[in-house]
Amino acid sequence: MQKIPLNIASPDMRLARDVFGKTNVNSLLCPKKALLTEEIITRLKNMDIDFIYVEKDSIRQEGYSTLEETIAALGHRFKKVRQDPLMSKIHDIFVDYYKHSMGSCSDR
Question: Which CATH entry fits the domain spanning 2-54: 3.90.105, 1.10.287, 3.40.50, 1.10.3470?
């Protein structure tokens, strides 16, 4: 699954998580597995939803990469300093951050 800004969502993407309201977190706006339409996207924008989770590889736009690509690139950047305990810890913090922000872990 990928976390994306709602403003780049497009019809025919499939939600990977339920979308809940901002003010009432128990208010289900759109269920997971729902296929996005222009009407749904507009409704979510009107409800001030900023991000949604879509199924893996639903989006491949310039500048966006998969979680696996991001972690591989991070590993490449840290390969010369990975033996240093502090740099290794910083690498692991970034990996955890990307896993969380790109939707690898399940919050709900």
Answer: 3.90.105
